[in-house]
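Figure 6 in text form: structure in, sequence out.
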């Protein structure tokens, strides 16, 4: 019994110190607690890449290269609880073609509109099954 109590005191102390020691790594610690799926990793990369493209467009630059990694949306493994159904597949295809349009220098549409079209497909797909990240994705839109 004594040992058990000691053990609890010890773990309590440990958790307290790790918390106060590095408040700023709290977010990272939470992240470490689960293994993100291939799709979740890809989604975060797509988010970061599109943020970069947005900044380029706002700076007056014309991005020219379609990030081919985005094609992995067709094959990346989803979290266990999600299935790749028909709707998901058509949204994936729609998204890839909208994203490719951003880099179509022959297009008659302004680049801001083509970028926003692609982001709107992100949002449409998310409305069907994964609504959590939508507020964050909306921030990508060029106003
Ligand atoms: C074809 C549907 C579809 C499209 C298009 C799509 N997403 Fe996702 N997104 C998902 C699904 C499903 C998940 C959950 C993945 C999982 O849990 O395996 C997800 C997850 C996410 C996440 C959370 C990842 C995490 O850490 O858990 C973010 C952020 C995200 N998407 C952003 C985007 C952005 C930005 C775009 C457009 C550039 C986009 N998504 C396009 C379906 C889509």
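Output sequence:
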């Amino acid at each position: 019994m004594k040992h058990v109590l000691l053990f609890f005191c010890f773990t309590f102390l440990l958790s307290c110190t790790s918390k106060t020691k590095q408040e700023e790594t709290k977010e990272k610690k939470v992240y470490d607690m689960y293994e993100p799926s291939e799709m979740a990793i890809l989604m975060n990369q797509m988010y970061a890449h599109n943020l970069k493209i947005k900044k380029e467009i706002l700076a007056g630059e014309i991005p020219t290269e379609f990030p081919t990694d985005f094609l992995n949306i067709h094959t990346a493994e989803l979290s266990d609880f999600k299935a790749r159904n028909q709707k998901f597949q058509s949204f994936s295809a729609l998204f890839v073609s909208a994203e490719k349009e951003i880099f179509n220098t022959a297009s008659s549409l302004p680049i801001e509109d083509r970028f926003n079209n692609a982001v709107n497909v992100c949002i449409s797909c998310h409305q069907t099954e994964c609504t959590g990240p939508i507020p964050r994705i909306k921030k990508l839109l060029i106003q």
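Caption detail: The CA atoms of residues 39 and 75 lie 9 Å apart.
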